[in-house]
Amino acid sequence: MRFKARVEVSLKPGHSDPEGETTARALRELNYPVKNVGVSKVYTVFFEASSKTEAEEMVDEMCRRLLANPTKDDYKFEVEEIE
Fold first, then answer.
1. What domains are there in the chain, each with its CATH number?
2. Residue 72 pLDDT > 90, yes or no?
3. What is the side-by-side strand order in the sheet with 2-11?
4. Whole-angstrom distance, CA of residue 39 vs CA of residue 57
5. In angstroms, what CA-CA distances link 48 with 18, 22, 56, 70, 76?
6. Which of 2, 37, 45, 74 has its CA 20 to 30 A from that of 13?
7. In what helix (H) or strand (E) does residue 21 lie, and over which residues does it extend?
8. Do the Cβ atoms of 75 and 35 come closer than 8 Å?
């Protein structure tokens, strides 16, 4: 079975987000009433697995081993079967 996963990785609360801070400042300079901006990375992963459960386990492992740094990042993902 083929699957597509959408993985979003973002900083945990309390960690510095210089890119988000710079973007927020630039938006305020353009006269938008912005308080904060948070930057996240989104990965789209296409892969094969024998079931949706196995696919979800694989994606969670991918996140823990490579896509997210558990010290500073949170992650969430969605997995869908594709044809």
1. 2-82 (3.30.1280.10)
2. yes
3. 40-48, 2-11, 73-82
4. 26
5. 36, 39, 11, 25, 19
6. 45
7. helix 18-29
8. no
The rounded mean pLDDT for the chain is: 97
* Alpha carbon distances (Å) from 36 to 23, 24, 67, 73: 9, 6, 24, 18
Average the pLDDT over 53-69 and give the result: 98
Question: What single letter denotes the amino acid at residue 26?
Answer: A
Report yes or no: 55 and 6 within 8 Å, Cβ to Cβ.
Answer: no
Q: What is the pTM of this model?
A: 0.87
pLDDT at position 83 = 86
79 strand-pairing partners: 5
